[in-house]
Structure formats: structure tokens, C-alpha cells
Amino acid sequence: MTERPVPRWARRLAHVIPFLTLPSGLWRLGLVAGFSMGMLDDSGRPAALQSTGEAVYIVCLSLFSEAVALTAFGLVKPWGEVVPRWIPFIGGRRVAPYAAIIPATVGSLALIGIWTYGFRDVFTDSFLPFSSDAAAALMITCYAPLNLWGPALLVLTWAYYRRRRLEAPVSASVGAA
What we know:
This protein is an all-alpha fold and 177 residues long. The chain has six helices and no strands. It has helices at residues 8-32, 52-70, 97-118, 133-143, 146-165, 170-176. Helix 1 packs antiparallel against helix 2, helix 1 runs antiparallel to helix 5 and helix 3 packs antiparallel against helix 5 (146-165). The two termini are 16 Å apart.
């Protein structure tokens, strides 16, 4: 464990991140349950999934998104600093700070790019067709928190970097005792 504690705000932010992905996952699961969620197909009828494969893909996408969001806890929990002992070969070893910082930074920037691009047409006429403005607003409301996922993860990564960068080397702290 590092000498520096995790700031309270960082711990809270790590708990918020999975909730940023949850509304979009629940909205997608509505499609899997057979609801059109107000979306219309090309002929103006309520949209429906075309195959079981699409349903499996949507469920897997929702679960994967949530699992990836949960990895933010590694930036505030002890297992983000020391590999748990039960993991073969590397258990008990310290996590090199950049082994977490680099993937988290790249992931943050990728999420910012993905959701900035994904929301480019939300308020234009080229957005998805919906049966009503309320249905479109529901979809936008469920997906809008994803725009905060990348920046929140980037801020959390910065806090991890500052905490781990400033820690004393292991050999120096052992010799000082």
C-alpha cells in the first residue's frame, strides 16, 4: 500500500463511474426484452431486434461496458497497488504505477473520443428516428452520462498518478525505519 491515502473525492468518483454506464445498459436491455424503446425502423414501424445474435450481442455489450467501468476501482483500491496474493505467479507484487496509468489514460481518451463522436448528431435531423420526442429524450438521457465516463476516469487516473508518483521508494522507506 502507498504511504499516501486515497482522497475521499477519488474514492467517491470511482463509485460513480459504474453508474455512468448503467442507464445505457438498461436502455439496451429494454430492446432485448422486446420493447422498441420508441425507435422506428426504416419503414416507420417500431424497431425490433432481427435475431437472437443481436440480443446476445447487446447483452454482452452491456455487461462488458459495466465490467470495464468497474475497473476504475483499481485506481482507488489496494489491488490497484499490490496484486492480490491469490493470482498465480504475480500475486503479492507491487503494481508498477504506469501499468495502470497508461491503460487508464488511453482508455479515458478513447472514451472521450468515442462518445464525442457518438453524440455528434444527437441534436440534428440526422439522428435516429423515434416515435416521439419523449422517446428520443429518454434515449439521450440514458446515453448522456457516457460523455462523463472518459473525463471522470481521466481525473481518477490523475489522482492515482499523483498518489503513486509521490510515494517513497520501498528501499528508502525500509531503511528509514
